[in-house]
Specification:
By secondary structure, the chain is of the alpha/beta class. The protein is built from 15 helices and 8 strands. The chain has an 8-stranded mixed β-sheet with strand order 3-2-1-4-5-6-7-8, with helices on both faces.
């Protein structure tokens, strides 16, 4: 088998056969549900029979007969989505390179397709949950034109906003409609209260299938640009991944001094959950960033930067990897060197944002 760079995302040429690829798996990082995220179960609670509020689809067509859906890609996320659709009464056809992953779903009513083309033929709506967008091109290959005509693709795989835009053009050229999506919960939380999914693409296509998509979680439509859902997905996970890394780094810092992680972690979690109380719900912060106003009333760049230096020094002396705190320190040093030492810490945004 060959491997592919995850950022290539080039649609196949008309006469180019698909290259063999590893089995598609879901490459998603959740925003909640610690049990799933800590890896304490792959399928988790994907197949229980108790319906949730989301399962009922009470908004936008609750009395509509559940439509058939194809689910392509049966990693943990794909299986959870298929299970949620089955619980809601949808006829579900599934396909995966490794057919054994469908066994639990087939046992509760899913139909296993013998090929991607057979899965697409079973319904107008197809939900893709793959490693990346390149996997979509590889799976469909040169037959995409005949397979996709008249279909609606909802790609919930992870990739870049530009890859989403290119995929939308590629699908349109083959007679298909295309929605981009980003699932913001881990697999066991799909279809449960609190689950939500970002979507972008043609509004009329989204509206037509919103009742079905609601089975996966609250649909949050962002706009017609196919790249928006992927952008929001990545921006949210930017916050999430950085927070997780800082939590692990801080734990390494205290355990290097002989403090058990169990003594530190509860207080660290309190710090994370207290951030909204410190900076508000984000509206005031957003107004400050938009206006470029950074009054140094309390937490100045110079004060915060000094703390960043101390964290680096403690990390280095403790033998803990200092890459993360060095990156943070560099941001404060840049702002201070530019003469903003007495501004609020939010002035860092002026150096982080793209130049216009």
């Amino acid at each position: 088998m060959t491997t592919r760079p995850p950022t290539t995302n080039q649609p196949p040429a008309a006469n180019q056969p698909p290259s063999p690829q590893p089995p598609p798996t879901v490459d998603r990082l959740p925003a909640s549900n610690r049990t799933a995220f800590l890896g304490l179960g792959e399928m988790g609670s994907a197949l229980p029979s108790t319906p949730s509020d989301t399962d009922t689809g009470t908004r936008g067509g609750a009395d509509r007969e559940p439509r058939p859906v194809a689910v392509i890609g049966l990693g943990p996320m794909g299986r959870a989505m298929a299970a949620s659709l089955l619980r809601a009464g949808h006829p579900v056809t599934v396909w995966n390179r490794t057919a054994q992953r469908a066994s639990e779903l087939v046992a509760v009513g899913a139909m296993l397709a013998t090929s991607p083309a057979a899965a697409f033929a079973a319904s107008e709506l197809a939900i893709l949950s793959l490693t990346d967008y390149q996997a979509m091109y590889d799976i469909l290959g040169t037959d995409a034109g005949s397979v996709l005509a008249g279909k609606v693709l909802v790609n919930l795989s992870s990739d870049t906003p530009d890859a989403s835009r290119e995929a939308a053009r590629w699908a349109a050229g083959r007679g298909a409609s295309f929605l981009t999506g980003g699932v913001m919960v881990p697999a066991p939380a799909v279809g449960r209260p609190g689950a939500y999914v970002f979507y972008s693409g043609p509004r009329q296509v989204f509206d037509a299938h919103e009742p079905t998509l609601r089975r996966l979680g609250e649909p949050r439509f962002l706009g017609s640009d196919p790249g928006l859902a992927q952008l929001f997905y990545q921006a949210h996970l930017d916050v999430f991944l950085t927070a997780l890394s800082s939590l692990l780094h801080a734990t390494a810092l205290v355990t290097a001094a002989g403090v058990p992680a169990a003594e530190f972690m509860p207080g660290a979690m309190d710090t994370l959950t207290a951030i909204p109380a410190m900076i508000g719900d984000g509206q005031d912060l957003a107004r400050s960033l938009t206006a470029g106003e950074h009054p140094g009333n309390l937490s100045t760049t110079r004060m915060m930067g000094a703390t960043a230096h101390h964290i680096v020094a403690t990390s280095e002396r403790s033998g803990v990897d200092a890459g993360l705190p060095r990156a943070v320190r560099a941001q404060y040093d840049q702002a201070i060197a530019a003469g903003h030492g007495n501004a609020n810490w939010t002035v860092l945004y002026e150096f982080l944002k793209a130049s216009t």
